[in-house]
Amino acid sequence: MAGKPILHYFNGRGRMECIRWLLAAAGVEFEEKFIEKPEDLDKLKNDGSLMFQQVPMVEIDGMKLVQTRAILNYIATKYNLYGKDMKERALIDMYSEGVADLGEMIMHLPLCPPAEKDAKLTLIREKTTNRYLPAFENVLKSHGQDYLVGNKLSRADIHLVELLYYVEELDPSLLANFPLLKPRVLALLVLTSGALICADI
Description:
Elements: E1 6-9, H1 17-25, E2 31-34, H2 38-46, E3 57-60, E4 63-66, H3 68-78, H4 86-108, H5 114-143, H6 155-170, H7 183-191
Parallel strand pairs: 1-2
Antiparallel strand pairs: 1-3, 3-4
Helix pairs in contact: 1-3, 1-6, 4-5, 4-6, 6-7
Protein name: Glutathione S-transferase alpha 1
């Protein structure tokens, strides 16, 4: 029996968080080895664990996987969260990339210089309400199903719930005009059956 996946990253959300969410939603227990000092990262680099000298890195099934999208694709495929055929996978990828676009903007907001923060926040609010959330609302409205693709839970749904959680943290009013999306923030409790205790949120 294979051991638990081991996640190597800093003690924060960052680029590992979507991996934590995906594993939790799949019901997979995992361990975390936090990088707490420069020497921890140097050790991973020096022992050849990091192909491109950077984290996140996940030890799973005898591999040391790096690059966030590669890790997500492997986990989604392994746990049947990646559609039933090429067309469904293309849609899942498309929706997931849209989630990532907005998620990157929100993730980088704390790093923004103070003088630029208000303008950045205004831009995020505008893109959230005029570009990204309308797109996902329309997808759900177009087919009337509970999930984005194939009426079955996929990585795209999990990434979207994570994004909506961050949007609500940023400004709950941004979800006000999206009745099909707003309940999904609460849905994470059912989606992961409490497993997100493992994720540092």
